[in-house]
Amino acid sequence: xxxxxxxxxxxxxxxxxxxxxxxVCAMAGYEVYMRDIKQEFLxxxxxxxxWSLGKFVEKKKITEDAAKQTLDRLHTTIDLKEAVSNADFVxxxxxxxxxxKKQVFKEVDELSPSHAxxxxxxxxxxxxxxxxxxxxxxxxxGMHFFNPPQIMALVEVIRGEKTDDETVQxxxxxAKKLGKEPVIxxxxxxxxxxxxxxxxxxxxxxxxxxxxxxxxxxxxSAAYFKxxxxxxxxxxxxxxxxxxxxxxxxFMEEREPPFKVAPIIEERVKAGELGVKTGxxxxxxxxxxxxxxxxxxxxxxxxxxxxxPTLVAINRAAELVALGIATPxxxxxxxxxxxxxxxxxxxxxxxxxIDTVVKNLEDLAQKFGHIDALKQLLEPHPLLKEMVxxxxxxxxxxxxxxxxxx
Length: 406
Ligand SMILES: NC(=O)c1ccc[n+]([C@@H]2O[C@H](COP(=O)([O-])OP(=O)(O)OC[C@H]3O[C@@H](n4cnc5c(N)ncnc54)[C@H](O)[C@@H]3O)[C@@H](O)[C@H]2O)c1
Hints:
By secondary structure, this protein is α/β, with parallel strands linked by helices. It folds into 3 domains: about 5-185, Rossmann fold (3-Layer(aba) Sandwich), CATH 3.40.50.720; about 195-300, N-(1-d-carboxylethyl)-l-norvaline Dehydrogenase, domain 2, CATH 1.10.1040.10; about 310-395, N-(1-d-carboxylethyl)-l-norvaline Dehydrogenase, domain 2 (Orthogonal Bundle). It is about 50% helix and about 10% strand. The chain has helices at about 15-25, 40-60, 65-70, 80-85, 100-110, 125-130, 165-175, 195-210, 215-225, 235-240, 240-255, 265-270, 310-320, 330-340, 345-350, 355-370, 370-380, 380-390, and strands spanning about 10, 30-35, 75, 90, 115-120, 140-145, 155-160, 180-185. An 8-stranded mixed β-sheet has the order 3-2-1-4-5-6-7-8, sandwiched between helices. Helix 7 (about 165-175) links the parallel strand 7 and strand 8 (about 180-185). Helix 1 (about 15-25) crosses helix 2, helix 8 packs antiparallel against helix 13 (about 310-320) and helix 16 (about 355-370) crosses helix 18. The chain is globular. It binds nicotinamide-adenine-dinucleotide (NAD). Nicotinamide-adenine-dinucleotide binds next to helix 1.
C-alpha cells in the first residue's frame, strides 16, 4: 500500500487525543469515521472540534469554507463495524489499558479490510503486544501524537517487532500529509523517544528531592532563574499532568529495573494531586491556571546545578542512538518538538563537548549513584566513552553526534 491509497481513516476513541486526531485527518482531506462507546462522547467531541476549527478560522489559518468541508468529512458512530469496515488506516486512541487495546485491535482486525494499517496512539504500551491480538502484526504500528494534536507537530512512528517496512513508510508519509513532523522509533522501548529522553531527567531530579538532597524550590529556582526554563521542572510536571508522566515512568519501572518512579511523584498521583488541572500538584493553582509559584526565589537558585538534568537526557539519548533505535536527528527533533525546547539534547552535547559530558556524568554517578534507581541513568553510556576515546568530542573536534565543517 502507498499513502496515496489512503482515502478513509477511522479514529477510535473521541477523547482528549481522538477528537484532535480526527480533526487533523479531516482537515487534511480524508474521510474520517470517529467512534466512541456513547453518543454523548461523540457529541462532546464534535463540539470541541467545531470550537477548534472556529479558532483556526479566527486566526485566518483556514477559511470558513475549509472548516465547513472539514466538518462534512467527519462522520461519527458508536458502531465499530461502521467505523472500520471501509477504512484504509485506523488510528486507535482509547484509554491506556493494554487489555482494552488488545480487545479493540482483535475486533478491528476482524472487521476492517485486510489491507488496512492499524495504528495505536499509545504513549507507553508495547506495540508488539498490541499487534499480537491481530492476524496482521506486520501492519500494526505506533503513531504517537502529542497533545493537543491540532497544534503539536511531532508524531513518533513506532515499530513493533513484526511491523514491516511498508507499514512504517506509509505511516511516516501519512503523518507528513497531515502536516506533521514524523520521527521513527525502531523499537517499542518504554517512553519511545521524546518521553524517554525528557521524563528520565525529571524523575532523576524528583529522586533528589525525595531523598531530601534538595528542595523542589531550590531545583525550580535554579532552572527558572539560571537556565531560563519558563516552568522549572516540577512546574512543568504540574503543567503536563503528573499522572501523564507517571504512567510512562511506571512502565519504565516495570520493564527496566532498577529504574523506579520517584516517591514524590507517586505520592502526588495517589493523593489525586495531579497538577494544574486539579488545582494542586507540587504547587497550588487556585484558578487552575499555571503561573510561576511565589516560592521560587533568586536567592535559592545557586544550590542546584540546572545542567544536571540535561546530562541525564543526553545519556538517555545516547542509548537510543547506540542501540540503533533512533538517529541523532530524530532524537533531537522529537525532544525539540515534543517538549518545545529550542535545541536538541545531542546538539547540546556536541556543543558542550562529549568529554565534558562524560566527566560530568561520572561526577554525578559518584555523587548520587548510591540511589539504586539512578545508577543506570548516571553511568555514562559506553557510546559516549567510545566517542571520547576516538576523539569524537563534538563541535570542537569537527565530529560528535553530528559532523561539522572546521
Ligand atoms: N492525553 C495525552 O496527553 C496523550 C498524549 C499522547 C498519547 N495519549 C494516548 O492516547 C490514548 C487516548 O488518551 P486520551 O487522553 O485521549 O484518553 P481519553 O480518556 O480522553 O479518551 C479515550 C476515549 O476512548 C473512549 N473509549 C473507551 N473504550 C472505547 C472503545 N472500545 N472504542 C472506542 N472508544 C472507546 C472513551 O469513552 C474516551 O472518550 C491513550 O493511549 C493515551 O496514552 C494521550
